[in-house]
Specification:
Shape: elongated
Number of strands: 12
Largest sheet: 9 strands, mixed
Helix content: 55-70%
Distance between the termini: 56 Å
């Protein structure tokens, strides 16, 4: 079927060696069949003589010997004096088919001689010598099987065709050039073929045990033709025409998306590609159609031409089973992302054949089942469980692990373990991604505390301070923080993340609530507050800000701990210690303010304002201390994993 698509493309010259081989094989068959017809005639005339054994000749020609033995052994003379034998009509039909195969081969390289041979066969048929029937005249057998000098015969035609095929085969003497079957090349053709094969051989191993990638090359007139059959799909063929430094690529595919993928692989070259036209052809593809694309590259030097040819050769292995891999990946991520993963695999010479050969979908399903049975539900896509970027990275790693493992001869079990371990790492990263939501919460806590500190500093300095604006802004920030907390809890539930992550979200939300309450109290405090209590409140607010910054510093370092970075673990634990220290400092500062209130002789409103404001700020540091204890637990869990 590959020959059909190549003929559709008008590049039949590349098929000549195969046509010659088919013609010579037909010559071997027709000689055995003519011998069988002659032996049947002899046995019918003299049944007492020993039967002719053609079993060795049959096997050599690829013919079932039992059929011919039955024909010869069952041959007999009819009452009308004619030859009859089991399978005689089929034998005569096969003889004609073989003769036509030889004529087709001759016509492929020498059309004039092929036309002449076709006319000779038509004359033989017109004489009734090839008519099928249950019995034939003995004279007809003689005319078919003998090379008569005085008149044309089928045997004589076969002999002439054989001589012509031998001469054509000599003209098409084949050799191997870096793995390509070549014939009729000039010295100027060889570097271009070698360049194409250099690229092909660089990635050839990535097809593993899949058939395909056979290459043929020949000179046809003023151009070099290179043809590669890629895989096993009938309409999946590439034919390259080279004239000097100009390269024309003719590529056919039954899958439109794969044809587009093929074109994209050469975006680094100044090649011009035609539109993807649909062509109808019976027997090609599921819809009896294929898509045709033509690329033109005009190199400014032989090196530029050879670089393009090498890129063409290197790309072909990534087309084998591409659509199968795309459909498989599409069940784990979005279809566009599946195509992007395969594009990455091709450009990085990772490929997808090893992944498919090791199980593909079963490989991923086993990783999910063993590494994350409670995190990823049945039928759930990876991009929904891990997030889009993490899912893409994991699948890329799975393809790379499969290729490297198969090339190195590792066991399937070892590759599966590697993929499962990588999935666990990505799930840990998903937890770390959730921690970035907590970081947003801490940022909002810092905004409220910072606003409160500026308000108190203004009061201390005797500058105007708008308490209502402070409370309004703090209220808006607190509402935003609530929405973030709800989002975080939803993600924790969706990803079935560690419960501790949700607890971290809760502690920061509680700290924000306390700081928003502090801002509200500050907005109501009497304007006459001043002196040492106000200075102490400013100091307490500074402690709260330091606690928030320590929590943020610890969180940033904790995100990196799953990657196995010891320095980050140490930084995270040190930040937790600083957080504990700030909580103790806040306790002490809150007691200092309480003492100042009791000895200050303030009115009730002022005293309540000072006490409640100090308590609210101090409670926020308590909540952050609870956050610190949870963060330490999270870090120690990651370190022990």
């Amino acid at each position: 079927m590959k020959s059909q698509i190549i003929k559709e493309l008008g590049q039949a010259d590349i098929l000549l060696p195969q046509l010659i081989a088919d013609g010579l094989a037909a010559n071997d068959r027709i000689k055995v069949r003519l011998s069988a017809l002659q032996a049947a005639s002899q046995h019918a005339r003299a049944p007492e003589r020993r039967l002719t054994d053609l079993s060795a000749e049959s096997r050599a020609a690829g013919i079932t010997s039992a059929d011919l033995s039955t024909l010869i052994g069952g041959a007999h003379r009819t009452a009308e004096g004619r030859l009859a034998a089991p399978g005689l009509p089929q034998l005569i039909r096969h003889i004609e088919d073989d003769a036509r195969a030889m004529i087709r081969a001759v016509a492929g390289g020498r059309p004039t001689e092929g036309d002449a041979a076709e006319k000779r066969l038509a004359a033989i048929r017109g004489a009734g010598l090839l008519e099928g029937g249950n019995d034939v005249e003995f004279a007809r057998v003689a005319r078919l099987t003998k090379a008569q000098e005085s008149a044309d015969s089928l045997h004589l035609l076969v002999m002439d065709l054989h001589k012509t095929l031998n001469r054509m085969a000599a003209d098409c003497a084949e050799e191997l050039l870096d793995g390509a079957h070549v014939y009729g090349l000039t010295e100027a053709d060889r570097p271009a073929v070698a360049a194409f094969m250099r690229g092909l051989n660089a990635t050839h191993a990535l097809k593993f045990d899949h058939p395909g990638l056979d290459t043929m090359a020949t000179r046809s007139g003023d151009r070099l033709l290179i043809q590669n059959d890629i895989g096993t799909t009938d309409a999946h063929v590439m034919v390259i025409s080279v004239r000097n430094n100009a390269v024309t690529v003719t590529y056919t595919d039954v899958h439109l998306v794969r044809a587009k993928f093929f074109i994209q692989l050469f975006d680094a070259f100044a090649a011009h590609w035609s539109g993807l036209d649909r062509h109808d052809a019976a027997g090609l593809g599921e819809e009896n159609a294929f898509f045709l694309v033509t690329g033109q590259f005009d190199g400014d030097s032989a090196k530029a031409r050879d670089d393009f040819l090498a890129a063409l050769g290197a790309a072909l292995v990534f087309l084998i089973d591409w659509n199968k891999a795309r459909k498989l990946l599409r069940s784990w991520v979005a279809k566009d992302d599946a195509a992007r993963i395969l594009d990455w695999a091709a450009r990085n010479r990772v490929g997808h054949r090893a992944f498919l050969q090791l199980g593909g979908n079963d490989l991923l399903a086993a990783a999910v089942r063993n590494a994350a049975p409670n995190r990823i539900g049945f039928g759930e896509r990876l991009d929904q469980a891990l997030g889009r970027n993490a899912a893409i990275d994991f699948l890329k790693a799975a393809l790379r692990a499969s290729t490297e493992g198969l090339l190195a001869g590792r066991s399937v079990r070892l590759v599966r373990d590697q993929i499962e371990a990588d999935l666990v790492r990505h799930l840990d990263r998903a937890d770390s991604a959730l921690l970035t939501i907590v970081m947003r919460q801490l940022g909002l806590a810092h905004d409220i505390a910072g606003g409160l500190a500026r308000h108190l500093s203004a009061l201390q300095a005797g500058r105007p301070a708008d308490g209502k604006l402070l409370a309004m802004r703090a209220g808006r920030i607190e509402q935003k923080a609530d929405r973030i907390a709800i989002e975080a809890r939803h993600e924790v539930a969706r990803l079935n993340a560690k419960p501790l992550v949700g607890q971290l979200v809760d502690r920061v939300e509680e700290a924000i609530d306390e700081l928003e309450q502090a801002a509200f109290i500050a907005s109501l405090a009497p304007a006459c507050i001043g002196g040492k209590p106000l200075g102490a409140l400013c100091d307490l607010c500074g402690v709260a800000i330091a606690a928030i910054e320590a929590a943020a510093s610890g969180l940033v370092a904790a995100v990196e701990v799953p990657e196995g970075r010891q320095a980050d673990a140490e930084d995270a634990l040190a930040a937790v210690v600083r957080l504990m220290d700030t909580e103790h400092a806040a306790d002490a500062q809150e007691r200092t303010i309480t003492a100042l209130v009791f000895i200050g002789g303030f009115d009730v409103a002022t005293s309540l304002s000072l006490l409640e404001l100090a308590r609210a700020i101090e409670r926020s540091t308590d909540r952050l201390a609870g956050f610190g204890h949870l963060l330490r637990q999270h870090i120690m869990t990651d370190l022990s994993a």
